[in-house]
Amino acid sequence: MNKKIRALERGLDVVGAINDADGPMSLGELHQATGLDRATILRILATLEDKGWVYRGMGDSRYRLTYKLHELGRHVSVDDAIAHAAAPVLDALQQQLAWPSDISVYDGDGMAIIETSRRKSAFVINREVVGYKPSMLQSAMGRAFLAYCDERTLDTILRRLRKKGGEDGRLAADLSYIANTLGQVREKGYAVRDPSQSSLPSETTEEFNAIAVPVIVLGDVQASLNIVWMKSAYKDVAMIEDHFFQYLKPAAEELSKIFHEHGIY
């Protein structure tokens, strides 16, 4: 009987634990799942990250499998693949503009933020947002998705919102509101958040603005990409929205290309 390579076995145990989990895992969860000590797990994760097999989220510091495994036909969720592929683009945007960005996907119930560069920003802007679900009809990301999804998807989402009730349900029943709001998004090329929307709880009392654009692959909206900034930073809102759009649009196009090349859609 051939001897086993213990180090490799431990590495595969970590990969297997991430694969079997319902979502991205923390170091503590990996320790509980594998029984390995934390120092060993950290060394394994560092090696797996270096080789491109595992990715640590910027927004939540949790570990997930990368699209490298997705390409090989192994198990990795599309959402995690999108988060991994989007991270360098979010990082580049933050480096260019100083303000952070988020990427969200429609999960059948609403938009869900799956990655963010907020922790890397010098500005304190609601950093704990991974997993947060913004309004479909009042957030920039929800509006960007709805404005560019196909008619059948739009009708299905609006029907679900009406059934659920609440403010989004009321707005979903207002056909004039829907037509005007989504028409404005298509005209500009980007969506803005409803001014009545309050910002998420934060360490600062500042209010925030945001614009968002869709990430489209083969005619279908796969995600929404935004940029967020403090309202007090700029007086000319229309000017700064147009300025940020000049960076956000090519970033979304770059993501579309990455998603298509790696089959993440």
Helix percentage = 40-55%
H and E string: HHHEEHHEEHHHHEEEH
How much beta, percentage-wise?
15-25%
Radius of gyration: 20 Å
- Arrangement of strands in the largest sheet: 4-3-7-6-5
Identify the CATH architecture of the largest domain.
2-Layer Sandwich
CATH class of the largest domain: Alpha Beta
Number of strands: 7
The profile of the biggest β sheet is:
5 strands, antiparallel
Oligomer: single chain
Q: Report how far apart the termini are.
A: 44 Å
Would you tell me the overall average pLDDT?
A: 91
Find the CATH superfamily of the largest domain: GAF domain
Low-confidence stretches: none
Structural write-up:
- This is IclR family mhp operon transcriptional activator.
- With 265 residues, this protein is an alpha+beta fold.
- It has 2 domains: 6-71, Orthogonal Bundle (Arc Repressor Mutant, subunit A); 78-262, Beta-Lactamase, CATH 3.30.450.40.
- The protein is 50% helix and 15% strand.
- It contains 10 helices and 7 strands.
- It has helices at 6-20, 27-34, 38-51, 67-71, 78-97, 140-148, 151-164, 166-172, 175-188, 237-262, and strands at residues 54-56, 63-65, 102-106, 111-116, 191-192, 208-217, 220-230.
- It has a 5-stranded antiparallel beta sheet with strand order 4-3-7-6-5, sandwiched between helices. Strands 1-2 form a two-stranded antiparallel ribbon.
- Strand 1 (54-56) and strand 2 form a beta hairpin.
- Helix 1 (6-20) packs across helix 3 (38-51) and helix 5 (78-97) packs antiparallel against helix 10 (237-262).
- It is globular, with a radius of gyration of 20 Å.
- It starts with 5 loop residues before the first helix and ends with a helix.
- 39% of the residues are buried.
